[in-house]
Amino acid sequence: MSLVVTGTIGIDTIYLPSGEHREEVLGGSCSYFAAAASFYGPVRMVGAAGEDFPQEMHAQFDNFNNIDATGLEVREGSKTFRWGGKYMTDMDQRESLFTELNILGEAPPPVPESYRDSKLVFLANSHPGLQLDFLKAFGERTLAVADTMDLWIDTARDELTELLKHVDGLVLNYDEAEQLTGKQNTVAAARGLLEQGPTFVIVKKGEHGAILAHSDGSIAAIPAFPSEAVVDPTGAGDSFAGGLMGQIGRMTEFGRLGKASDFDTLRSAMAHATIIASYTIEDFGLGRLNTLRHDEIESRYQAFRDMLHIAG
Question: What is the pTM of this model?
Fold first, then answer.
């Protein structure tokens, strides 16, 4: 089932607690999402970079057979979005050192005509007004899911509130769920967000897993895979979303489960989302996903299922 994503294409600088750091790392929500989703099926990406975007970074998308980068615009005269961050000893916590919006302050990239029949739409982190405008291009969609961040909750809450009326699902971090609802309890925050329009809400809690709340009243909790090699957590949440949407597309395409927004479909897809995110954090940027094999994903997925088995 056709899947499209829009979001940021970025160049990152990352500092680790050990003092190790990397500069000029391919990043951005669209990049991580597309790379992760590509392991489950074709994914179309819509994003924009500046003329300073290195060709070798552009070429990384070619390493993933299922990524259609027709919608990636490299805009002459513009500069690529850049972000720098430093992780604390607790790798779930980080400090932003700089954010250069650059091309993100300009008009968004156009949606290719060949993408407009996409059935699954993911709105990776960007201004909610732009997310809603993008969504209007897909009149045949069967599932639309959005991500957001604290910046938009602070500066564009009205637009975000309107967006929630038009999407089927929302994926966000625990801190953002609390900020948006004023509720510290994760389940209460998720249920509060359901009242604003979505059919389901997934609240990510880093190394503590994720919570799924559904409008049918169901709740599910899934742990994170217990990774031993945590190098760079950047992009883990976007990879989680990519794995989620990719697996939803794969399951609904082959009739393995019901509707894309059904509780059982979502809960099953969350397990794959967790696995693909656990590989992302093993290297800087898309490094680990560039070398990842399908048999590795399946092996870790089976280990995860065994780990969760509870005897009657």
Answer: 0.95
